[in-house]
Amino acid sequence: MRNRANTEVNAGSMADIAFLLLIFFLVTTTIETDAGIDRLLPRIDDTSTIVVRQRNILTVNINNSGALLVEEELLPLEELKDVVIAFLDNGGDGSCDYCKGNREETSSDNPNIAIVSLRSDRQTAYADYIAVQNEITAGYNTLRNREAQRLFGSDYTALEQDYLNPQTGPLQKEQLKAQILQIQELFPLNLSEAETASE
Amino acid sequence: MAKFNKKKDGDVPAVSTASLPDIVFMLLFFFMTVTTMKDSSIMVENTLPNATETKKLEKKDRVIYIYVGKPTSQYTSTFGSEPKIQLNDKFADVGDVGDFILQERAAKPQELQNVLTTALKVDRDANMGLISDIKQELRKVNALKVNYTTTDGDAFANLQ
Fold this sequence. Notes:
Order of helices and strands of chain B: HHEEEEHEEHEHE
Largest sheet of chain A: 5 strands, mixed
Protein name (chain B): Biopolymer transport protein ExbD
Membrane topology (chain B): Single-pass membrane protein; Single-pass type II membrane protein
GO cellular component, one term (chain B): plasma membrane
Strand content of chain B: 15-25%
Radius of gyration of chain A: 26 Å
Structural class of chain A: alpha/beta
Largest sheet of chain B: 6 strands, mixed
CATH class of the largest domain in chain B: Alpha Beta
Distance between the termini of chain B: 83 Å
Distance between the termini of chain A: 100 Å
CATH topology of the largest domain in chain B: Nucleotidyltransferase, domain 5
Pfam families (chain B): ExbD
Oligomer: heterodimer
Helix content of chain B: 25-40%
Number of strands of chain B: 8
Transmembrane segments (chain B): 12-32
Strand order of the largest sheet of chain B: 2-8-7-4-5-6
Helix content of chain A: 40-55%
Number of strands of chain A: 7
């Protein structure tokens, strides 16, 4: 009986078993990259042609070597973000009371009807296209952050992150959703990749 | 006296390995939580472009993946070096994308069928012609939510 109290289960092989499991998981799994730029494609049956005034369209063309033509002029990619911000924030007709732009005659009337028209060549590299998409999104996010800071004291991107966080409670989620929609209404993402008719 | 002698000839005690399983299990759990199962092997080159303004794809069960890129070296002899579309484990044409999406959608539970996102994992050297064709196919089957999957990083580095 005295001997029996001292006997222990030999745990030496436990490490081997755990190592085996570890190696199995290392081999069969990958660390996935699962972040990206979200876009909503237009419906296919949406054939209605809206007539938009020329001043409310910012045309961005990417050629096959990745060079940018913005409003018929060459522009380095580094400046695109500022051009997008200036265009959206212009508030030309004075109906936008939160816009802080220069109210120029040649730029957009109101962010609600301002359209960024993006066109790319079939030979454009995907990396260039994403870089341009990224800069346009950055422009929108800067303005949305500004408004979210003014209204809710928090960045728009932070609101979105909190909303997507699975640990956020349902009550808080509802509140965040309302706030996000409110900001999106101030600066809606009007990105057109189709033909846009002008007056 | 014998009592004292006995102590002297004792060997160096063995290092206890009792905590080794615990350490390995800790590693195991770490890898189990940060990684996900591979569901298909990628047969195309897939260096994603960089972007900063990204959003996370949180729920894996609501995502359909489409890979685009040049076939990897072992497939170049049969499939050439032009960028190709990979759906699940097969190379496919642009025309197959619509059917694939409908198939994948039908396989998902009813309540998720309207909230699916299509993640486009496209190699940075692919051209936009192919991508716009894919987008056109997605519009035809009403799969409008798209995520251009990217890696976090400086977008200006894409231009080189």
